[in-house]
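Supplementary Note 3. Input sequence used for the single-chain structure prediction.
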Amino acid sequence: MKLKKLATLALTAASITSLAACGGKSDSKASKSDASIVTEIKDDTTITFWHAMNGEQEKALTKITEDFEKANPKIKVTLQNQQAYPDLQAKINSTLQSPKDLPTISQAYPGWLYDASENEKLVDLTPYIENETIGWGKQEKIKDSLLDGAKINDVQYGIPFNKSTEALFYNEDLLNEYGVKVPTTMEELKQASKTIYEKSGGKVVGAGFDSLSNYYLLGMKNEGIDVSKDTKFDSKESQKVVNYYADGVQEGYFRTPGSDKYMSVPFASQKVAMFIGSIAGETYVAKDAASAGFKYGVAVRPAKYDLQQGTDVYMFSSASDEQKTAAFEFMKYLSSPDVQLYWAQKTGYMPILDSVIKSKEYQESANTKVPAILEKDTEHLISFPVTTNANAALNTEVRSIIENILTNPKGDREKMYKDGAKQLDDVWNQ
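The predicted structure, written as discrete structure tokens, is reproduced below.
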């Protein structure tokens, strides 16, 4: 596939004021919903987009938005930066009590909006996607695993936006010094970490994981278990997953971020040889490696499954019919190949289209090592479950329980598993 330069987008993008018919037919359910869908924006329409992008990410989003507005002169997109994810989540939660004050669309994790979906405050995008006039048509379909990750209760409420996944970052110089190959399995990661720790006389820890929640969910999936409220934390599989990390911490060849918050900090000071973290953090890794004078590498996360992370864009039902159509067109535009290439190269987030991931332009992106491993790294992506209390259970409680086990190596681990199981059940059932 040959991608055009973003500069041509304003000239090549179809204006919504003269929408062309798209191929494909809708089923009866979608056709019935089509009756309320506006298929032509005749008057000036303003939509509001809440986001939490900063720095280069915000600059890229602003440029993309300006190009969209040039191609669609009757649509004005007002970008409102909420600064950080916690602030954005809090703003959404508080404003849901007054729907008229909600934006047209917002960046969000699906778990934030579970109650909103239950209370019919989100727009099901399927009728828009399948609409014969303004639908997705021949535009390339988003990667299935990412599109599925933006569903709530199997309804397509969201469109993937700033997505990432985990990868293995490694200090190439240290691995060469201690005669260790880049691990391709979790067992190899364990053995390589032991070797580094022992050969360095305990001065260099082998590896660590940035996110305990991610670690647990993926560990369980790689054991064949989809975590849910019925999963017992003290089960055989659960203990196996946690013990893998806890044993390594106890013996010294693994470590946690601890007070450093991110594994990239001890990695930068060469106190850790490898770590598993988000590809969105590569910019910091590259800068730190250059400053410290060592070569870094990026490899596929050493297990079958990986996790899709990052937020999606959701539309609120309080918007007018015209605003909904305008917002859908903007969401489609954000998902187009040229925009995805530009977004990925400017921000470090992954493209949500397979064609862009495989494209020559992306593979030859400057100052990044992620493109070379991303196709394989995203072969088997999973998402955090989006159900009642899942966010509190898996993003907060599981992390807290595992952290307690890892930081108490001499504690009664059996008791901690039993206590943890009860704590987790309480959160699921609150």
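The chain has a mean pLDDT of 92. The chain has 20 helices and twelve strands.
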